[in-house]
Write a structure and sequence with these properties.
The complex is a heterodimer. By secondary structure, chain A is mainly alpha-helical. In chain A, about 80% of the residues lie in helices and about 0% in strands. Chain B has one domain. The chains are: A mainly alpha, B mainly alpha.
Chain lengths: ~250, ~190
């Protein structure tokens, strides 16, 4: 009964998010995120139908569509990057380098595992494989959030919602996949409630934060660059050294 | 089993960070002007004060120890420790403000060099780390003893640097230039201001 309620609640909230985006005319502002919401809505409804019409094929459809979800989910991370750093070309340049590095590191781990497994899959089970890809997404999101914090990039309500919602979704997903893998069928009974419940929590966050369009405050154009990056970096470097020398000198005197 | 736990703990930690981030309000302020203001204040502020020179000198402590009772000398040492810690906190605060304003300016600059930023970041981290150690030593041993310890470490560092330079002249010079300019030449005041 409870699992059915949770199952039905998901598409309702997803529809509500899409409805608010359409009413507020901001679907285009977060295109990839809304593509993701449309995809999970279609998937939820299809799985519901498959479960009742073709229950023996449910697991098959579930896991294959799950991989597509992971792929579409990458769009949410990209959307966060785009929305957060669109007006900050310097920080965006840094983010591209850092994220590319993180992506190469995490993906090479998956590729090596897939090549050595013989089955061309990084995990021994589908569950492990999903977890590997979720780790890549989580690492990229964590790297992006770390950069946003480092450069004190302002985030509006919408962006904070996207980050918090998808961050919580990925983290809880990873915990659940690990527990499911570690505890096996013992955890299955819990999993069927915990997984949709956390997802509903994430959808509620998105409903609340994307109820209306609330972007971050734009950086003021008049405060933009006059100083070249080289001179800025040189000045900062010089001051850092001066501070170090000053302390040494105070102690030496 | 260990790997599973590792994933569990990592995901838990990331979840915690996500929750904390919801609560945090990332504020946005002026960029370019702030950087210039910070540089100006950095030039003129307490960094160049004469006070700092006396905090670490042993003469005052020795005089008080010689001329007064042990309890007064102890109170004096405690006062000096507080003063030294406040001074160090001030320097660290100024450097942090300067670095923050650097980041606020750099984030808008399309010419930003990721490698340069990483180097600066490490340099800032090294500064924070070194001063944190100094902070702890001052707190535990007092400013005068901390100064002795630092001087000893610096002497040792310079000797090692000289040895490295003798062994590999090119590398040694590069390293000494990259780190704090700790050689006696760096002691001149014009380099500081």
């Amino acid at each position: 009964m409870l699992s059915s309620v949770l199952w039905i609640l998901g598409p309702i909230l997803e529809s509500l998010i899409l409805l608010r985006g359409t009413q507020g005319h901001f679907l285009k502002k977060y295109k990839l995120f809304y593509v993701y919401v449309v995809w999970v809505l279609v998937r939820d409804l299809s799985l519901f139908a498959v479960y009742h019409v073709w229950s023996s094929g449910y697991a098959y459809v579930y896991w294959y569509s799950q991989f597509l979800s992971i792929l579409v989910g990458c769009g949410v991370v990209w959307e966060i990057y785009r929305a957060a750093l669109g007006s900050y070309s310097g920080a965006a340049r840094m983010a591209r380098s850092v994220l590319l590095f993180l992506f190469v590191i995490t993906m090479s781990r998956i590729v090596v595992a897939a090549v050595t497994s013989g089955k061309w899959l990084p995990g021994q089970t589908t569950l492990e494989t999903e977890r590997e890809f979720r780790i890549v997404q989580l690492v990229l999101l964590a790297g992006l959030v770390a950069l946003l914090t480092y450069y004190a990039i302002p985030a509006g309500r919408n962006l904070k919602g996207l980050i918090a919602g998808y961050g919580i979704f990925l983290a809880t997903n990873l915990v659940q996949l690990t527990l499911r893998d570690f505890l096996g069928d013992r955890f299955q009974n819990w999993w069927q409630y915990i997984q949709p419940a956390t997802y509903i929590f994430v959808l509620l966050i998105w409903c609340q934060t994307l109820w209306s369009y609330a972007p971050a405050a734009e950086s003021r154009p008049e405060s933009r660059i006059e100083l070249s990056y080289q001179s800025l970096a040189c000045e900062t470097k010089k001051r850092l050294r001066a501070a170090g020398n000053y302390i040494v000198k105070a102690i030496r005197s | 089993m260990n790997l599973e736990l590792y994933f569990l703990v990592s995901a838990g930690a990331l979840l915690l960070i996500a929750v904390l981030l919801i609560r945090e309000d990332l504020r946005h302020r002026q960029d370019q002007d702030t950087f210039r203001a910070e540089v100006a204040s950095f030039n003129s502020d307490s960094l160049a004060g004469e006070l700092s020179v006396r905090i670490f000198r042993a003469e005052d402590s020795e005089f008080v120890a010689r001329e007064t009772s042990p309890s007064v000398a102890r109170a004096f040492r405690q006062e000096r420790t507080v003063l030294a810690i406040e001074w160090l906190r001030g320097v660290r605060g100024q450097v942090s403000r300067l670095f923050r304003s650097h980041l606020k300016t750099a984030r808008l600059n399309p010419d930003l060099s990721p490698v340069g930023e990483l180097r600066l970041g490490f340099q800032f981290l090294a500064f924070q780390l070194t001063t944190s150690i100094l902070y702890a030593v001052i707190r535990i041993r007092g400013p005068v003893r901390a100064a002795r310890l630092v001087l000893f470490s610096l002497d040792l560092y310079e000797k090692l640097l000289k040895m490295a330079k003798d062994l590999s002249p090119i590398t040694g010079t590069a390293v000494s230039a990259e780190f704090l300019e700790l050689s006696p030449r760096a002691g001149n005041r014009s380099a500081v201001r």
